[in-house]
Design brief:
4-stranded antiparallel sheet; alpha/beta; about 500 residues; 20 strands; about 20% strand; Arylsulfatase, C-terminal domain; 10 helices
Length: about 500
């Protein structure tokens, strides 16, 4: 009997799929994302004013990347790109999300959680969210906060809903504010709710941490914030307890899901303002609270490692340690970060930091660790948080629809430290989405495109400052890591090639 060719093709395809699934690896994955952590902020990357032994252990036993990046120099666009594998500048108005922002990542968008979930992973995000909640009208704080993480692939979430210098100071577990008393409803708004509502301006003498700019609205726990809120007193948390809560909830969730492959996005709030470490970490460094919360972050990493060891999960868990953007000193509060800086170089050898498209804004610590799988080493290959979606999909056998994850590349071999493996050959960097400023790194060349004609030239030793610059600038990072010597008019061939390449990437709508 003659077998129809179509059946033969189908049979071959099924066999190939089965073999692919058999060869796929499904380690547990924990992405630990710090907040505002600079390239030079930990001892594994050269810091001498403090020690980070647990992060250093990851770096010593795994791959430490010297060209590891996030995709934007502020939190919301980086987190969007990390989850979706698509540059945030492709989605209009993906700047820093306000307190009442609706969900930034819409249902129907494939994310790192939904893609891993499709191959059997349990998924959770614990910590800072800052990607909005709810439909077009924004969050219903007293009802169900949908859409949220669970509508885009996460099985569980325990969140700081915005970022802690913005209101409200409550936890969100899955789709509701935790411990909310219906008799004391939560209201969040942009305007002062009453004339007698205490603010950082009217009650400045009551603050335990003064503000320097902008953070002077509603007061909670002796700290004034951006935005206004009332009610939900039983649901409010204490700033000092955030790190402990993230570790506690993560350890519980890991233990509950240890029998399945799991993906945990551990989204730390350290080092973001207001920097208020737990009392046991206050004063442990010479750098003030900013240095103290780095040590607190390191403690969190150590506690997660202890949980893996206790549950015998070390040899089947891949850890990625990264940051959502580079450093900043005075970011709205008087916490003496600038005054206590001393010889500490938060951005390492690089210029700029948070809000900027200089290297210090997006080049951060980036470490991969997997006991027995990743050999110790230092890699110069270029990798980015935006690549984790495609890389983990490739490792686990998951499929990415062609119209999703438009800028994510599979660089898993580089992440695993395989000999001869290559990272990405180019990377677009963006600012906070307001200035439409971009950076393009290709090899050792770095193109800056300042559509705003302003460079957020944030030398982390100084306060924020805008500097008038030409729209295009070009630098050779191999000779000029501080991006001081503009070669745009001196090397026309490279300048024109990179200018055209950046424009093409932006206009084409995808780079994958």
């Amino acid at each position: 009997m003659r077998i129809p060719p179509a059946l033969i093709v189908s049979a071959v395809a099924l066999v190939a799929t089965a073999l692919n699934l058999q060869s796929a690896e499904k380690p547990n994955v924990i992405v630990i994302m710090a907040d505002d952590l600079g390239y030079g902020d930990i001892s594994a990357y050269g810091a001498t004013s403090l020690r980070t032994p647990h992060i250093d252990q990851l770096a010593r036993e795994g791959q430490r990347f010297t060209s590891g990046y996030c995709s934007a120099s502020t939190c919301t666009p980086t987190r969007y790109s990390f989850l979706t594998g698509t540059y945030a500048f492709r989605r209009p108005n993906t700047g820093i999300a306000p307190p009442n922002s609706p969900a930034v990542v819409k249902p129907g968008t494939e994310t790192i959680a939904s893609i891993l979930g499709s191959v059997g992973y349990k998924t959770a995000v614990i910590g800072k969210w800052h990607l909005g909640l709810g439909g077009p009208e924004g969050p219903d704080w007293n009802g169900e906060l949908k859409p949220g993480p669970r509508e885009i692939g996460f099985d569980y979430n325990f969140l700081l809903p915005t970022t802690n210098d913005r209101v409200p100071q409550v936890y969100v577990e899955n789709s509701r504010v935790l411990n909310l008393d219906p008799k004391d409803p939560l209201w969040v708004g942009n305007e002062k709710p009453s004339d007698d509502h205490p603010t950082g301006i009217t009650h400045r003498d009551t603050l335990k941490m003064d503000w320097s700019h902008g953070h002077n609205s509603t007061i909670h726990n002796g700290i004034s914030r951006i935005g206004f809120y009332t009610g939900a007193h039983a649901a409010r948390f204490r700033d000092e307890d955030l790190a402990d809560e993230w570790v506690k909830q993560s350890s519980i969730w890991i233990e509950e899901n240890k029998d399945d492959p799991f993906f945990l996005f551990f989204s730390s709030h350290d080092l973001h303002v207001p920097r208020i470490p737990h009392e046991r970490f206050q004063g442990v460094t010479s750098l003030g609270y900013r240095g103290d919360v780095i040590v607190q972050l390191d403690w969190c990493v150590g506690e997660l490692m202890k949980t893996l060891k206790r549950l015998d999960l070390e040899e089947n868990t891949m850890i990625v340690f990264c940051s959502d953007n580079g450093p900043v000193m005075d970011d709205g509060y008087v916490d003496l970060a600038l005054e206590n800086l001393g010889n500490h170089r938060a951005a390492g050898p690089y210029t700029g930091g948070k809000y900027s498209i200089y290297e210090g804004g997006t080049r951060t610590p980036f470490i991969t660790w997997w006991k027995g799988k990743i050999q110790p080493g230092v890699s110069d290959e270029m990798v980015c948080t935006i690549d984790l979606v495609a890389s983990l999909a490739g490792l686990t056998g998951a499929k990415i629809p062609d119209d999703q994850c438009l800028d994510s590349f599979d660089v898993m071999d580089a992440l695993l430290g395989k000999k001869g493996a290559k990272g990405r050959d180019h990377l677009v960097q963006q600012d906070n989405g307001r200035g439409n400023n971009y950076g393009l790194r290709v090899g050792s060349w770095k193109l800056q495109r300042h559509d705003s004609k302003n460079a957020r030239n944030v030398l982390v030793e100084a306060k924020l400052a805008n500097t008038k610059v030409a729209q295009y600038r070009l630098f050779d990072l191999s000779k000029d890591p501080e991006e001081k010597n503009d070669l745009y008019n001196k090397n026309k061939r490279v300048a024109q090639r990179l200018t055209a390449q950046l424009e093409s990437i932006i206009e084409s709508g995808r780079s994958r």
